[in-house]
What does this fold into?
Amino acid sequence: MRKISLAFIVGLCLLPSTALAAAAAVDPGDTAWILTSTALVLFMTLTGLALFYGGLVRTSNVLSILVQCFAITGVVTVVWLLYGYSLSFSEGNSFVGGLQKAMFAGIHEDSVRGSIPESLFATYQLTFAIITPALVIGAFAERMKFAAVLAFTVLWSTVVYFPVTHWVWGGGWLQEMGLLDFAGGTVVHLTAGAAALVAAVILGRRRGFPNTAMPPHNMTMVVTGAGMLWVGWFGFNGGSALAANGDAAMALLATHIAAAAGSLTWMTIEWIKFGKPSALGIATGMVAGLGTITPASGFVGPGGALVIGVIAGVVCFHMTVFMKTKLEIDDSLDVFPVHGVGGFTGTLLAAVFASTSLGVFSGQGFAEGIDTMGSQVLVQATGAVAVLLYSLICSAAIFRLVDAVIGLRVDTEIEIEGLDIKEHEEHGYNF
It folds into this structure.
């Protein structure tokens, strides 16, 4: 037995020091949690978002939504491998990363990022890169060419998503400034919301909007998808701790509380205004709560999450009504008022409720010690406005370019008959 132990020790000593360091750096618990979180976030796009958006459109367009979610997943995966991960997370300048990790160069079984394998970190971040442009499809649902969707996805991810990710999480200027964005209030929701607003304005309204009623064709599908989003968001926000620890647990708790508060608040407002609570309102309020808590989830306590969820329900509800009735902008599935406004609001509130001066409302872990609320609010506002303007300007340029080369909007005949049969030669339903 002693000979075997001695041989084992000698063998360890002969291993390359880099391999020993890598083996020691990887934490099995952290790795298991991020593996799970990666699956949860991908599940959000391929099932949760697909069903949620698919149920909201009319019967003749449901399949187009499902196909777009699948196709975006494939396209972004390839672009992420080719250069997206490198532009987002490799060393570069304050604006964008370099190409040192193009095609995942240098990433192998022993590569480590923090306490998890770098291959896992890259895959987890890929799921964020996938869901962000997928959110935008809700703004141009039922009227945009499939080829244009794919072209927009590649160009927008390259010009907007990858640089902003580097700004906030990859060592760029907003990270250096001290912006608090735990899980993507600016990187995901604000960029996608701004692009959605631009899409709705440039493509114009659907035929018949706002005079013709366009109710969701399948509310069962909508609520099922919303439930999947709620569960999947635990990986989205809880996984952003990149460890299986108290920060992940607190982020998960804050996420759940804000979702519940946002859902109940939206439901209550509808109940008071219209006399009945709707399933659509309950589901949409939940998504508003999730989007708004996302940037703050790892920085605030349960009390702060409750208040943020309530604020999300109030602000996002009224912005949705304002856009549809006052501005008459046909953001088909309310992407900007829910994700864009929610992401902006949550980014500002992260500074407010992360402050230790708020007692039981204050943050845990990373944000502990932020006492100068005013200066942090200024940082948050600077980051939110910069990301908003950047996404608005670049999205407008990209949509105009795609329109000039491919054309954005389907013909009137196609829009009337529906994208399912005209774009994909298939029906979502065969009755």
Summary: Residues 29-424 form a domain with the Ammonium transporter fold fold (CATH 1.10.3430.10). The chain has one domain: 29-424. The longest helix spans residues 373-405.
